Amino acid sequence: MRKLSWNDAEYIAIALFEKFPNIDPLTVRFTDLHRWVVELTEFRDDPKASSEGKLEAIQMAWHEEWSDNQ
C-alpha cells in the first residue's frame, strides 16, 4: 500500500474516486475534501500541511478521474 502525502494528487484522486464514485468532485467543499483525504487509510502526511492549492490540485485530478468514468 502506497503512503500518500499532499503532493500525491493523482493517487489521492484515484482513492477518492474509488471511495466516492458517484460524487461530482466539483460539488465538494474544501473542508469536506480535506477531511476525506485525511481519513484515507493510505494518507500519512500532516493534516495541517495542506493548502488551498494542494486541495484544488486534488479536486481537479479527482474531477478528471470522475469525468473519464462517466
Characteristics:
single chain, 70 residues, mainly alpha, Arc Repressor Mutant, subunit A, 3 helices, 54% helix, globular
- Report the CATH C-level class: Mainly Alpha
Sequence of secondary-structure elements: HHH
Helix content: 40-55%
Count up the domains: 1
- CATH architecture assignment: Orthogonal Bundle
Q: What is the CA-CA span between the terminal residues?
A: 27 Å
CATH topology: Arc Repressor Mutant, subunit A
Runs in which pLDDT lies below 50 for 5 or more consecutive residues are none
Gyration radius, in Å: 11 Å
CATH superfamily: IscX-like
Largest sheet: none
What is the percentage of strand-forming residues? under 5%
Individual helix count? 3
| Tertiary shape | globular
Would you count the extended β strands for me?
0
What is the SS-derived class? mainly alpha
Mean of pLDDT: 95
Set down the secondary structure blueprint.
Blueprint (H helix, E strand, L loop, with lengths): L8 H11 L10 H10 L12 H17 L2
Short overview:
The protein has 3 helices and no strands. With 70 residues, it is mainly alpha-helical. The protein has a single domain, classed as IscX-like (Arc Repressor Mutant, subunit A, Orthogonal Bundle).
What does this structure look like?
With 70 residues, this protein is mainly α. The protein has a single domain (9-68), classed as Arc Repressor Mutant, subunit A, CATH 1.10.10. It contains three helices and no strands. The protein has helices spanning 9-19, 30-39, 52-68. Helix 1 crosses helix 3. The termini are far apart.
